[in-house]
Write a structure and sequence with these properties.
This protein is 12% helix and 42% strand. It has 301 residues and is mainly β.
Length: 301
C-alpha cells in the first residue's frame, strides 16, 4: 500500500462501465495493467510478460492503483464519510482542460487521519476529475489524484480486451488463491472494543474490524506456530519503524500518508498482532497495549 500513497503513480484509464474498464500503471521499467471484465479481473505484468486471469469477485484483496482513480476514490470518500460529515461548495477551477465544480467533505470528530477531502467534478456529467485528501493539521494534501486529460468517448473493445500475445505467459487463479495469508491467521477472540472503537462485523472471520467508514482499523492475529508475525515485526524494525515497548510485549509503529500500522508481540499470549488503518498512532498503540495483555474471556465476543 505504501508505494500507492508515497510518491507519484502514473496511470492510463479507459472505462466503458463500472465493471468494464482498464487501468495501466506506468513506470520507467514497463507497465502493469488491470482489466475488469464483469466479475473477472485480468492482470498484465510487462516485466514478467505474464497475463493472469482471476475468476470471480474478490471479497478481499490488496489495494491497487485503480483504487486511486479520481472517480473510484471520490465515490469511496463520499459514501464512507460517516455521520456528522459536512459538505460545502468550493470555488470552481479548471482541471484537465475542463471547468470543474468543487465539493469539500469535512469529517466529523478527530479520530480519523483524514480531516477533509476536496473533489472537483465535471458538472455536466458528474465525472470526478481531481481529488485531494488532507491529513490532520496540514494545509497541503497528503494524497492527490487527478486526470490530466479526460474525454467522453467510448473505448474501443480491443483496448478493454486483455491480449495474450505470442511469447507471453498466461495463468489462471481464483480469489481464494490470493487469501493464502489467512492460513497464517488465527480466528482469535478479540475484544468488543479497542481504544474506544467498537468492533464491527467482518466478512472475513480472521480479521477484526474496528470503527466505521474512514475511521477504521483492522486487527490480524498471526498463528503462534507461524513465523509470519515475527517476520513482519523484524522487517518493520529493519526498515526504520519506531520500536515500541509495552509492559507485556514489544512492537513497532510505522506510518505512510494517512495510514498508520502497529505490529505487537505479546509476552503473555505469545500472539503477534498487526493493526493498520485510518486512525491516529496513539489510538493504535493504545489498542496494541490492550492486545499485549490477554483479557478475561468475558471481554470478548
Amino acid at each position: 500500500m505504501t508505494p500507492l500513497l508515497d510518491g507519484v503513480t502514473r496511470m492510463r484509464v479507459w472505462q466503458a462501465a463500472p465493471d468494464h474498464w482498464r487501468v495501466d500503471t506506468l513506470s520507467d521499467a514497463g507497465e502493469n495493467d488491470t482489466y475488469q471484465v464483469g466479475d473477472n479481473t485480468f492482470a498484465w505484468d510487462s516485466g514478467e510478460q505474464l497475463l493472469t486471469e482471476i475468476f470471480g469477485a474478490q471479497v478481499i484483496r490488496l489495494p491497487r492503483t485503480a483504487d486511486l482513480m479520481p472517480q473510484a476514490l471520490a465515490i469511496r470518500l463520499i459514501s464512507e464519510a460517516g455521520p456528522g460529515a459536512t459538505f460545502s461548495l468550493l470555488p470552481p477551477r479548471r482541471v484537465a482542460g475542463q471547468g470543474a465544480a468543487g465539493l469539500a467533505i469535512k469529517l466529523a470528530g478527530s479520530q480519523s487521519t483524514i480531516a477533509q477531502a476536496d473533489v472537483w467534478a465535471n458538472p455536466d456529467n458528474g465525472l470526478p476529475l481531481l481529488v485531494q485528501v488532507f491529513g490532520r493539521g496540514s494545509a497541503q494534501p497528503a494524497l492527490q489524484t487527478q486526470f490530466l486529460q479526460a474525454g467522453p468517448w467510448t473505448p474501443d473493445a480491443a483496448v478493454l480486451t486483455p491480449q495474450h500475445g505470442p511469447g507471453t505467459g498466461f495463468t489462471t487463479t481464483t480469489p481464494a488463491d490470493f487469501t493464502g495469508i489467512l492460513q497464517n491467521l488465527d480466528e482469535e477472540a478479540l475484544p468488543a472494543s479497542l481504544a474506544g472503537f467498537p468492533r464491527e462485523r467482518s466478512s472475513v472471520t480472521q480479521i477484526g474490524v474496528y470503527g466505521t467508514g474512514l475511521t477504521t482499523f483492522l486487527v490480524l492475529t498471526f498463528n503462534r506456530s507461524s513465523s509470519t508475525g515475527w517476520q513482519i515485526l523484524n522487517t518493520a524494525l529493519k526498515a526504520g519503524a519506531t520500536p515500541l515497548t509495552f509492559h507485556d510485549g514489544r512492537g513497532a509503529v510505522a506510518s505512510a500518508p494517512l495510514v498508520n500500522l502497529v505490529i505487537v508481540h505479546s509476552h503473555v499470549s505469545h500472539d503477534n498482532f498487526l493493526l493498520v488503518g485510518l486512525v491516529g498512532r496513539a489510538a493504535l498503540e493504545q489498542a496494541a497495549a490492550v492486545l499485549a495483555v490477554k483479557p478475561d474471556q468475558d471481554r470478548y465476543r
